[in-house]
Leucine carboxyl methyltransferase 1 (Patiria miniata), 315 residues
Amino acid sequence: MGDDAIYATNDDAAMCKRFAVQQGYWKDPYIQFLVKAGERKAPEINRGYYARTEGLRSLMRQFLKLTHCACQIVNLGAGFDTNFWLLKDEGLLADVFVELDMRAVTSRKCHMIRTRSKLLEPVQASHGSEPVVIEDAELRSTHYHIMWADMRDLKQVEEKLGQVGLDKNKPTLFLSECVLVYMPLDKSNSLVKWAGTNFSSALILNYEPVNMGDRFGHVMVENLRKRTCALAGVEACQSLETQKARFLSNGWEGAAAMDMMSVYRSLPADDLHRIERLEFMDEREPLQQLMDHYCIAWAWRDVNKIGLESIGFNR
């Protein structure tokens, strides 16, 4: 499998998010500085990204409020994610916010931050009087770090997180969006087990395909294979149960998973009413199919009993 094809999935996702933002699904004044405008997307794609973005951010907010922001966030395969800026604007700035991705991705993101004041100034403002250091395709500051690492290389991941002083005794949230599925199962299991056994209070959020054993799932896999982008870890994406089992068999105390239609329906009713008026949808079947084949799974390890099992969605 070519890594270039995986990099392309980052660009695709970022362009989809930018288009949905332009259509008014959610507010993100930063995405425009990281990715160019793409072509028009179908309404079901926009609603899918809305559910993904708002669903994950809902869980992140719960974690940040539970820990009073005295915590760490590690975004695995972060791509052009903008959560650092958006959460900072909400007054929800974690003590440490680390993004990890391949060097080809971090190099581009660091360049864009360096050359766009709307991205750089909030990082500087959270850093105090010391200059933000951007070099060797990495960014280092007081609260925010971008580091390059191959998620398949656990030793490298550990080394990079050690360089920013990650504290294994502090509550830590791991975020993974369509990352584990591109890794061979033994590699993703090693990463998941490391996160689930080395941190006393940890939460992991994983957005990924699910129900991949049916015809729609097979078509998804085949279409990606044609783009030389094989889903090496698809075995863990067969059902919500296999998604949970990935964590429960690798050191995590508890796990939950919901398909994206259930996540979508759990989001605030007034906001759903607002976004459903943005674009007319002829039929709901394409949305249902799409939402049935993605999920958010989350797992926790809570040795210190701070209440991580309380984080979730209202049904």
In short: The chain has a mean pLDDT of 94. The beta strands are 72-76, 96-101, 133-135, 138-140, 144-148, 172-177, 201-209, 254-259, 294-302. The CA atoms of residues 33 and 116 lie 7 Å apart.
